[in-house]
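This section describes the prediction task in plain terms. A model, or a person checking by hand, is given the sequence of a single protein chain and must write out its three-dimensional structure as a string of tokens. No templates, partner chains or ligands are provided. The sample shown here is typical of the held-out split.
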Amino acid sequence: MPDVSVVVIVYNDADRLPTAVQSVLDQTLRDVEVVIVDDCSTDRSFEVAQQLAATHPERVRAFQLPENSGAGGEPRNAGIQHTRGRYVMFLDSDDVLEVNACRNMLEAAEETGSDIVSGLCVRLHKDTRNQKRDEWYSWLYATTRTLESVTELPDLFVWDTLSTNKCYRRDFLIEHDLRFPKGMFYEDLMFIADAYLAAKRITLIPNQVYYWHVFERAAVKSVTNRRHEMTNYAHRLEIHRRIDALLAERGLTELKLAKDVKFLKHDLVLHLRDLPFRDESYRREFAELSREYLAGIAPEAYERVPAIQAICAYLLQRGDWGNLIPAVDTLINRDKVSSPLAEHDGRIYWCGGHFDDAFGRSVLDVTDIGYHEKPVNQLFLRNQLTRYQDSGRTVSLAGRITNPLGVVPPGARLTGELEFSARRRSLQSFRFPVGELRHEGDAIHWAATVDLTAGLRPLGIVDSIWDVRLRLDVDGVRTTTRLTVADTELTGSLPVRPRLTRMVADRLQPHASAKGHLAFRLVSEGASAERMQELITRGVHGKPGTLAKTGYRKAKALRKKVVSGDNKLRVYHEVFCRLPVKKRTVVFESHLGKQYSDSPRAIYEEMRRQGLEFEAIWSYAGSPKDFPKGVTLVKRWSLPYLKALAQAEFWVDNQSYPLKLTKRPETTYLQTWHGSALKKMGFDQPALKAQTRQQQEEQQRSLDRFDRFLVRSEHDVHTLARAFRLKEKTLLRVGYPRNDALVRARQREEELGRRERGPLAAELGIPEDKTVLLYAPTFRKAGGRHGRFELPFDVERFAEQFGDRYVLLVRSHYLNHVVLPPTVQGRVIDVSARHDVTPLLALADGLITDYSSVMFDYALLDRPLVFFTYDYDEYVHEGRGTYFDLLAHAPGPVVRTEDDFHETVKSFETQSLEYARKRAEFVAKFGEYDRGDAARSIVDQFFAQWSR
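The expected answer:
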């Protein structure tokens, strides 16, 4: 009796069958048999199978079904009956097994007694140059694990629905009469659902076991590449109905919900993406098939998928084609805004027309995505082509650009141009003016006539595909759109004059790209052009072309290698660090280059105030906007950035320069840090304590680069300095330069007997009679349906209850992002985009925070603080821990619920006196060295000699 029987099914695949069978015969586990089942092929497949059986009589047997079954299920069923091994595996004739697959799976099955052992499947895209590979849901196979029931891991049940990357105990298959559905596509889904639920034990192993070969250009498409066929979709839905019935019969509601989520995220999306390219009759039939099934999807499933996927499913179920097809455009082009949007009761919705349906409102509510907060230059707007007509040399185009929430105002000055650009980067582009632009309801209408024959001159070989963009200027602010073809018919072709003469190509032919956008391709219609194309094709695919392409690829690979992280480090250490240090050069960085802020900014501005002569270099990550003028800006991790650090006399930052960069002895590193510590830091964190000695030593080397470390209290000495294992001589007890402004603000307030707001309040549009509260929480992992940081209180309720007295400023952590609904405009203001928090602290009449280090800074102003610690137990006891009990030391009330938070805000004014003593104690303990002269002290100590 063989250890493993591998059932190889084949239909009209004579050429590839031997390779599949050989992958079984080559297994390192020798006691393996092959059972070939031919689904009544019309080519030589069965003949080849018989030849293989004759060549390997002890290991290969071949069988043929009397008639074609139409799918892969029945051949596998027949194969199971013919197997003799203790375990069974399945293999398709166009795929192969990994050489150790049988051995690894058998050993796992024998060791654990599992009914099913499953390993990692790898998809190999055979049509691609380098055989692109992707691992099939690899997160399931990160480590070996054994399940007593599939309900322990719902993701396995809903995502890994393959039958082929698994090894089954044969007695288990026979005992439970596990069979594939006959004549149905997606037969794997039903079979594996039955098997998962019947198995008493399942083992997952991290080994690659199965190579799934993907042939997208094959003459005969596989089932997964024939999604446009309605039978394909009908079979998919029928299989899903059967699985749903199976789950309902067993009362497995959680598995059903997980499966519903997967259907909305994956199965439905695969078919929705084809809708824009299908005709009206196809869409109607698709909707009819979908409507009944979608009615059975759990409403909770819509809450667990990305918004646009839920929106498309809802609109499909409601038959709202007018809004569905644009929504599918966003499904295909993730960042595109393809709907004009609708505002209703202070919320933003994907579209109108469904406000009477509570479920529809919840699905279509896109307020939290923040479309309403974005200016036109940050929006990728849908631009639907409404006219395409060619007349000889010219083409007449017209379209409608979506204008969501009137982001383009009626009186705006509009100009535009069409840009035709070669798809390959760094090649040429041609621009043509848009002659007509006007507002038209909730869209911008445009029209243009373009003489492509005269105005577009391609090379003719490497630029065969041309994309079209419309660049729209709105009062001088530009946004770029792509032309969505939708239902507009593209016909004909235009004459073109390539620079390499018309012997290369002679026509431009319009077509819709894979993402549905207008594009043109160079084609050959004349006899001479066709002959030239044939010669070019030979050259490209022949030896000269192969050599040229190989050289290009090597150059591209070399460039990629040169700018890789490892090579940048080599360049830094072996090249840049051998250059001379440039005297009077300072590299400043704040929050990993994300901001122009904090103590590095305060030191820089003090140096400028004193008129020192030096070269200032600021690093930035992302956009250089809002960084100072008159300095050298370098992008973080770029070669200029590394060169600047290697040659700088001083480094000044508040977090850390890249950890693996060694600091030269001639360079002085001033580490200002970014806040006193409540939560445990450095080597006091459990995660760092658990690191290996080598990892800890590497971390320590990065910390040992600090020549000076600023502290604002002895609390910092006992926490941060100890956690970072800093020597006493490294510490500078001068306070934080960023807090000089706060200390001076308090001193001035005491001198004048009143508070000065300054220009920031007017800039933010805050009325003089309103009290300003600042909400500034610490970092939170993004959550919620849209992946945003969600406020722990109902901001609309807050605005309604307190908007007549307060203006609430919301400042999220720089690694988070928050979106406010339009209903709170003017009463709640998002100030997260402002680089520096210090001016906001100085403006605020009171601070609301949780565990953020801004508590230590704001206390210097001697103004009220409220601590909204809604997740205190989780944060303190389940996180990395804290250095002190916030409940005992907080210089203001600590609240846990939204109702208590509101009650505290109502009595905000009384807290100034009530907590005055605790604030004074808090400042004495945590801010004793903040005296208002930290920046001047540092500049005098390190840079005074640089005076002009």
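For orientation: Residues 221-227 have pLDDT under 50 and may be disordered.
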